[in-house]
Predict the 3D structure of the following.
Amino acid sequence: MTDLSTTYLGLNLKNPLVASASPISKNIDKARKLEEAGVSAIVMYSLFEEQIIHESLELDHFLTRGTDSFAEALTYLPDGGMYSIGAEKYINQVAGLKKALTIPVIGSLNGVSKGGWTKYARQIQDAGADALELNLYYIPTDIDLTAQELENAQVELVAEVKSAISIPLAVKLSPFVTALPNFARRIVEAGADGLVLFNRFYQPDFDLEELAIVHSLDLSTSTELRLPLRWISILHGKVNADFALTSGVHTATDVLKAMMSGAKVAMMASNLLHNGDQVIPSMLNELSWWMESHEYESIKQMQGSMSQKSVREPAAFERANYMKVLGSWRDLP
Amino acid sequence: MKQPIIMTDGNEATASVAHRSNEVIAIYPITPSSGMGEFSDEWSAKGKKNLWGTTPLVIEMQSEGGAAGAVHGALQTGALTTTFTASQGLLLMIPNMYKIAGELTSTVFHVAARAIASHALSIYGDHQDVMAVRQTGWALLSSGSVQEAQDFAAISQAATLKSRVPFIHFFDGFRTSHEVTKIFQLTDEELRLMLDDDLVRAHRARGLTPENPVLRGTAQNPDVYFQMREASNNYYTATPAIVQEMMDKFAQITGRHYNLFDYSGHADAERVIIIMGSGGEVVDETVDYLAKKGEKVGCLRVRLYRPFSIEYFIKGLPKSVKSLAVLDRTKEPGANGEPMYLDIVNALMEGKRADIKVIGGRYGLSSKEFTPAMAKAVLDEMSKPEPKNHFTVGINDDVSHTSLEVDSSFTLESEGMVSCVFFGLGSDGTVGANKNSIKIIGEETSNFAQGYFYYDSKKSGTVTISHLRFGPQAIRAPYLIEANQATFVACHQYAFLERVDMLKYAKEGAIFLLNSLYGPEEIWAELPQEVQKDILQKKLKFYVINGYDVAEKTGMGGRMNTIMQTAFFAISGILPRDAAIAEIKHAIEKSYGKRGEAVVKQNFEAVDATIANLYEVKVPAEINSVTTRRLPVPKEAPEFVRDVLGQIIDSDGDNIPVSAFPVDGTFPTGTTQWEKRNLALEIPVWDADLCIQCGKCVMVCPHAVIRHKVYDEKLVAGALETFKHTPSKFKEFSSGFAYTVQVAPEDCTGCTLCVEVCPVKDKRAVGRKAINMEPQPALREAEAKNWDFFMSIPDMDRKLFNPSTIKNSQLLRPLFEFSGACAGCGETPYVKLVSQLFGDRSVIANATGCSSIYGGNLPTTPWAKNADGRGPAWSNSLFEDNAEFGLGMRLTIDKQTEYARELLKSFEQTLSTELVEAILNADQSDETGIGAQRERVVELKDKLSKSSDTRAKDLISLADNLVKKSVWIIGGDGWAYDIGYGGLDHVMASGRNVNILVLDTEVYSNTGGQSSKSTPRAAVAKFAMSGKSLPKKDLGLIAMSYGYVYVARVAMGANDQQTLRALIEAEAYDGPSIVIAYSPCIAHGYDLSKSLEQSKLAVQSGHWPMYRYDPRLAIQGQNPLVIESKEPSIPVSQYAYNETRYRMLTQMNEGRAEELMKEAQHDAKARWTLYQQMASMHYGNGNEETKS
């Protein structure tokens, strides 16, 4: 009998397959089905502070617009209600998921203001989340903003959030960092217990007929696994944190690769969104079958087994593939 | 018992009592009473209980007539029932009021008394409506202040239960209904003590029940009707004493004592004014002031007007009285005097005081100001040996010379009173901030406080004036702050300096606060001369703040409210600065806290940033400005526009004499063109190189400020260099023709719909279009000249092109232009299109609502004329009767056309047969045919003009009917779906050739967003606070059921071509047609510049399917229904949740929102399926054999 258990952020998980942040967690019934299907933990959809601010200002704008302008219509919409704006809905969902599920629930947060990050982090913790994942989603467009300034700000932010909460903290990183290992180390030193690699961003597309920018969410494919796979392999053992691999996890094989790179968990969203929770039991079965057939005793046994420090040719992670083909040789006796 | 002190207005104070003391409330919105219904609905939606612990049931009806019927039924079955109304609404209740009184049924209707539409509609206050029900057998109880409105609501409720006589409790619309002031709030315990449960149970016991069946509402014959009419006399006789008993009881409970007739003034008064309502406050104050100076004057305020008690009246008068002046706030043309005057004359006779001289006069119609100076003028008149009777006061009647001279320098100044006047733009939040300020002053200081707010009649770019008073003594001043009386004047919009004389209000030494684009060092030179002069002469302390800058930096956008409020408190010193800021922040939290922290934070930041940007200006000693204030209208405007409408635009309408006005309410059209409002900060600029000349920008413009023309290229020669033109791409006018798109820079509201609709994208930078917004000030002067030049270019001859394409249709001159509708209004593009296509031969019946306000509210009208002087002839009758009103117009045209044709035939011998035949058989199906017929009619008239035959004269007077006329019946969904539906149905059924345009905003827009039967399921509206639970009525489907009505459902934003086609077909159809037009509205709660996109989503989701149903197709054996939108391709929620009206329900009650949205989705699908089935049915043409 193979042992699929793992630990992540100090949480004991029955297997390494975790549902990553997606709209599925907005629905408690669907989350419950994920648990029944076998995921070992669930990362909630992100609480976006910017969205809370937007909703608040938007409601105010449209309830106010046109008011007190015309004697017959001093207002245009009734304003008698208490509005559920702010983190309340999200916090209630954390509590609801905790009540409905036995697996760990990990909150996810994307803030814009310093006060917002720490306040909402604490609220998510108080609602019962087992851990918190910070979603450092930021697209720098300001030409005057340097990498150093941005990184410093993010490191500072992690430290502040960490000091505000007592539950474990993971940080989801962007792949677009010039010197990722150094940045990863600084994030961990600032207090992150885990690193989640990588954030996938909505990428705008062009509609050539309409000459318009269009936004659509493309689900990931297994080929996207390679980017986080490389970086976890590189960082494993160098940075003292639990790694979660997200992006491109679709099959049991992908989970195995993630584990071998050094990840403690493999996170999956696109496959769940596309195929539903029924993919989970078969993935877990396949995982066990593969381990049994290859005589692995446990997941822990393989974690990091193919990371940079564990392989015979560490430089493989540092070169591009074509270099390996064209440029590799060995001295013959 | 401690009485809570609150700041409130008359509507809220009254509704609070009504809601607590009733079980059923049937409502219908009508200004200025709507607030009472809205409060009741809101409280019941929140589960607020009445005195007996149950939440009153509130129901919105389809009209006031419907509300009265529902009230009658609820009363007849024993519920404590009420309603709120005003004006025409009360008139619609009259039939039921007779019934309710005849059946001796206890109820109180609360009325915010308002003018009646006669020569014109007015939403403002007077007693014409309540005087029109004085004969119905209802008691009439009049309150004159917000405090009294609350108190009399309770007294009337108690009195009706005991007397069984139904009561109208009324107060002055706007002046009392909307004045915010400090009152002692009636607690539940106090109200409970007023109402006797035994009487409540007795009322209930009189209710109809099968357990104890009785019959009411019989029909009677000459033998007994009369006797029964007399049978209830004793109840009326007893009522005055019962009301006084309740007033005495009320005094015991609250300490506030009232009488049926309340006297104030000199104990030995010889001259006494008799008055009802808020005017009584003015007279009270005036006589108190004069009596203290020894003048023997007094005021008798009539509280209970019906049943009129001669006994109490005589008792209320001091014995010393020698003369009376009765002031009526109403007008009864042709009567021997106004009603209260006649009552008093009779009372003196029957009360054996015929020794007293009495005169009567009118004052205060439509909220006309009534001031202490006017009250004094009446008292002075009484002193004359031959005082004027049937006088007017407050106007200059230079026609029938009824008016009294008023010495406007007479004012009453209360010691320590502070008077402040604030000028704002509707959208900048000035009024809201001042409501907050006066509440802070009233509730957080020991001051008495009063706020009253004036609005002009535009829906965009409104100028608001807030009048705030506060001080240590009770404020009894139900009139605006007068000239030279304000101790604080604030101008919240810099642009007002050049067009509004605001410093006329300032007292010597007052403070003037200006929201300034310039700093304290630069501002002086920028002020118009008149402003500099006032500052110097009145020795004003002058402060500036760049509120625009603070607003931009703190994310407040165009809202100056918080900033200017903070500046006001900082300068005025009413509270210590820190305390004031703390209170402002507290008020912000209270007002906006429930909308989320971000709003509060943003406002807090604005407060904090204000103080640092506030400066006192060191005023130089000399006037050195080179600019002067602008004229209200240009000098070249027609005389009536310049001398009358211009004076109204200049906020000086009060001083226009009677002789200046038409006697029958008739006004010239085409007058908005003279009212240059310069509202837009940015205006569209045309890029001739990119333009494809599609005309969509012209079509979509709600205000007709962007137009295009194709014209002889030689005409360009006279243009300015900045005038843009390019060769025409129109296939009909390709060679030798130039093309121009021109914007009216001073009329544009800056809504940006033209930019949104422009399909062109610059290949070098796709964000740039053929129309782009640029700042207005730099363009204003040159583009104004270019506009004038553009307008001087002749319109293309209508006969030379087919208007069935968008670009061609927009060559037709809009005869509806520059309206005061909201920026981005979704209604006006349809109205404008109708005016272009058919305006030169249209008669329009317009239902009361937004379209009658932006179409016909003085000072100016957007309905216009073409170069030939032809254009739409427009009229508004009422809200409820518009379809019938329009049908009447059709009947006249039909009859007179028939008669003209009959006469014409009789002239066949004397005129040329060819001409007569040509006229009688003319094909007028297109513009060429209509143009040719017009020429024939001119020829006919010319020929007939030489005849002395009376039939010839008749025919000349009727001959214009021989040219095809187009009758349009226009109104909103409140009219078409609700109050006017019965008439609409009948008019459609009549088969007559009328064209009905329903501007469907899915809500009562004009009265502030109340739910109609058009409101879709899941949307929040007033009277549907928890989301409308039932689907939108399918008016089109009902219309289709006739089979001979042309029906179209259109959405210009989604498909402009379909709209154009539908309107042309509807007009061409020789029978009734109805076009239901999707009309984005400010009440939907989204940025209206996105309304085109949103319209598309409404269609794509199936919320708004588009179709045409043409009965002519059925005659040809084809299916008449052509669906022109595709099968729903997106969920309804994707359309709906772009709008606050839907989205706010998800924030208030997510579960209910989800449930209703699910049902709304089902509605869309079911509707689509049904239409699909209808559209795919096989139609025979009636000639097929029936298979057996």
Notes: The interface with chain B takes residues 52-53, 55-60, 62-78, 80-86, 89, 211-212 of chain A (CB under 8 Å). The CA atoms of residues 260 and 304 of chain A lie 5 Å apart.
